[in-house]
Structures are given as structure tokens and as C-alpha cells.
Amino acid sequence: MTKLISLTSPKTHKGLSFDIYRKPTTTDLIIPKDSCHPFEQKTAAIRYHRERLLSYRLFPECREKEKKTIKQILANNKYDPNHDIPELKQKKKQDLNTHTQKKKSARFTYVGKETRYITKVFKDMNVAVAFTTNNTIRKHLTKEYNTQCKYGKSGVYQLTCPDCKMTYTGQTGTPFKTRFQEHVRDFKYNNIKSVFAQHLLDNGHSIGKMEDIMKVVHIKNKGRMLNTLENHHIYKKNCSR
Asked: With contact defined as beta carbons under 8 Å apart, do 142 and 119 qualify?
């Protein structure tokens, strides 16, 4: 986090100037140059730092220190401080009297240069293109949370025997974790309701943890479509043998 702090000139004591303060916990992490992100997203932070540097009333020594800091941030993220800094362009004022046709918009997941080749066809069609990415920090940080969250949904699942690797495919209209607990209860009390539990009991095999032996194949609410999905995955498994 950064903020402005006001300073009084020690020589003249006239007026106020400003310096940029960075908290000690502030990192120099921005989207690195070799990341698979659109160029506009990579340079957004760089443009912000440059615009702030040019627009704030900084002391000359503070301005030079900020320039060095920006160059260091660029170098740490594999940019060339002398060539990879985008130029700031003054925004054109829109003429309110000029009627402009409203553009449509389309969103594409950015996977590399190929995405730009595909979206070039939209330039002459009055369509504004926006890029999104899947490799975000949030997704990496919440990966474990999302894994736990999916067990609270319903659909088609697959259980794998820890000992012989035999697989069982089933469906549930209740949460996956609830269905797994039912299999565990049948195994514990020697109940033949669960085909999977019966296999474990008949062969003297053990039962593992939900995260280790239960795979969520398809998330879907209870209904006819769920029956179709279950039959499809059973048929697919049998054909792969």
C-alpha cells in the first residue's frame, strides 16, 4: 500500500510538496513479463506508477528515488526498465455533439497470442473485445477452498478402492460428503445397502479418506439429466477397460 505524505521544504518553508510512502510490508510483485496475460493487464501497474510519478508534486530528490524504485520493480519482474515502460498518452476528449454508435462487447479468455489473432476479425464489426484470464492469484489461493466446497454439491461421483483400485460410479441428489458418510456408515456397520461398502467387506479391504478415494465427476442437481450423466460415465468406464 502506498500513500502521499506532505513535507515542508526545509530551505524555504514555503508551500507543501509530497513524497510517496510505502509500507514496509509492501511487495514489488506485479504481473511478470513472462506470464500468460494480455499486454494491457501486464502494463496496468506500470502505467499507474508512471502516471503517479508525473502527476504528483514531488521533491526532485523524491522524484529520482521513485524513478529508481519503479525501475527496480520492473527489473524484479523481468521487464526492461529502459524499453518496457509504456508511454502515457493523453486521453482524447469526447465530442458530446458527435453521435457515436454504441459498441457491442465480447469477452475472451486469453490463452496467448492466438487469442489476438482470433479477435482481430471483430475490429471492423464495431465490437469491443475484453480479455479475461484464469491464472489469477485468487484462484491459486482458493484452490483448496474450492475443493472442499465442491463436496457440498450433488451429482455424479466415483469411489476408488484403496487396495485394489476398483472403481464405483454413482449419483447423489444430496451433497457428496453426505453420500460418502453413508458409504462409511454401511462399511462400519456391515450394511449391504452400499455396493462399494459390500466390496470392501467381502474382500477385507480398507476405506480411505473422502479426499483420497472420492472423485467428483460431474456436478448436477437431482433429475433426469443426472440419471443420463451417471449412465454415460458408467458406459464410458466400461468401454475404457
From this structure: no
In the chain, at which residue ranges do the beta strands (DSSP E only) sit? 2-8, 16-22, 104-109, 127-132, 155-160, 167-172, 214-219
Domains of the chain: 2-76 (no CATH), 104-137 (no CATH), 150-239 (3.40.1440.10)
Give 38-96 pLDDT, tens digit per residue.
888 888 888 898 888 888 888 888 889 999 999 999 999 989 887 665 555 544 555 54
Please report, in angstroms and rounded to a whole number, the separation of the first and last CA atoms in the chain.
56
Quote the cell numbers at residue 104.
457491442
pLDDT for residue 9 = 47
Is 232 a residue whose pLDDT tops 60?
Answer: yes
